[in-house]
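Morning. Coffee machine broken again, so started the prediction first thing and wrote up yesterday's gels while waiting. Chain of 187 residues, entered below exactly as on the submission form.
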Amino acid sequence: MTNLSIAILCGGKSRRFGVDKSVHPLDGKELYRHAYDALAPLTDDIFVQCGSKDASLYGVQRHNDDYLDLGPLSGIYSALRHARYPRVAVVACDMPNVTAALVRHLARYATPDIVVPEWASGHTEPLCAIYKKSLASLMEYQILSDDLRISSLFAKVEVKKIRIEPLIASGLIDATVFKNINYQDDV
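Came back before lunch.
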């Protein structure tokens, strides 16, 4: 897939999990590798966005956040800054069931600033979405203004919301794609 970078966000503190979940083993490999391996065939620019962690934990291309310990918006901002291509698929490391089919589907929509999956309830999945690299300066302004809410960003730009239930009903994705690992019992 051309013109798409992919960033696996591994910067969280894993407070609920108790230890760094991004490198916790799941089915014989580290948690982040599930998303990484599923999505790597889509691009030649895939990397781990590490937050303030020791980047050597990851055996792949990786970057530390530009602004440390400020949550997901900072990780997304840093991913956009480090990406080579104009659009960046951002996926949380704790989504081991994410698929290339989902990212391919989201990438079909080239015009909006953000393409994000949305449940019928209105809940969105901003940590499994596509962002235009050009949003980096707006995100940095938000960070410097101490507004770390992704929802604030959504209110300022063009967002295409893709309903999740029809994707499941059509068989494009499985119902477990958005299941994330928050607690050790989830493993």
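Helices lie at 31-39, 72-82, 100-107, 136-144, 150-154, 164-169. Going to sketch it on the whiteboard this afternoon.
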